[in-house]
Every structure is written in C-alpha cells, then in structure tokens.
TrEMBL record:
Keywords: NADP, Oxidoreductase. InterPro entries: HSDL2, SCP2_sterol-bd_dom, SCP2_sterol-bd_dom_sf. The keyword Zinc does not apply. This is SCP2 domain-containing protein. One of its GO terms (cellular component) is mitochondrion. Belongs to the short-chain dehydrogenases/reductases (SDR) family. Residues 1-27 are annotated as: Disordered.
Length: 100
C-alpha cells in the first residue's frame, strides 16, 4: 500500500507580501535643510522664536519644518512637534531659491 507524500505548503506570492516603504529621496530640498541646520545656533533661535512649516509641491515635495523655538533649533521632514507659527506653501524650486 502506497502512503501519500506530504505536499509542501503553498507560499504566498512575494507580490502579495507587505513591503517596507521605499526610503524617500528629497534631493535639493533635503540638501537645503541640511545647510540650514548647520547654520542654526542658540542665538538665532533666541532671536526668532518661531516654528515654520513648509508645504512643498513638485518633485521632492512634502511637509517640512524649521523649529526656531527649541534649543539649538530643529529641521525635519513631516510636521513639527509644536504647532507651526507660520505655514508656507510653495513649489520646491521656489523653496530652494528662497534659501539660496
């Protein structure tokens, strides 16, 4: 008498498996914020005392912030941890020109 052979478990298609989101690439916008961050100081923060949020459209767009209330200042992608005092909407090209 023949015994049935165990069948391997079917594996889900790799296309159906959850994939991690791709790491965003921000190019000129990210580079501009890197330069801004390097120029921040406690003196600039003390003199400014404001949080800026940038809603950027176009290539490499998204929400970015410049926090000039926190010690030493902060920049980053996404919304600031504190409510923005100023929200500016512009293209990424205009943003880069504004800081050039």
């Amino acid at each position: 008498m023949l015994q049935p052979q165990p069948q391997p478990k079917p594996q889900p298609s790799p296309l159906l498996q959850p994939q991690p989101p791709p790491k965003p690439h921000f190019g000129a916008v990210e580079e501009t914020f890197r330069i801004v961050k390097e120029s921040l100081s406690d003196e600039v923060v003390k003199a400014t005392q404001a949080v800026y949020q940038f809603e950027l459209s176009g290539e490499d767009g998204g929400t970015w912030f410049l926090d000039l209330k926190s010690k030493g200042g902060k920049v980053g992608h996404g919304e600031p941890s504190d409510r923005a005092d100023v929200v500016m909407s512009m293209t990424t090209d205009d943003f880069v020109k504004m800081f050039s």
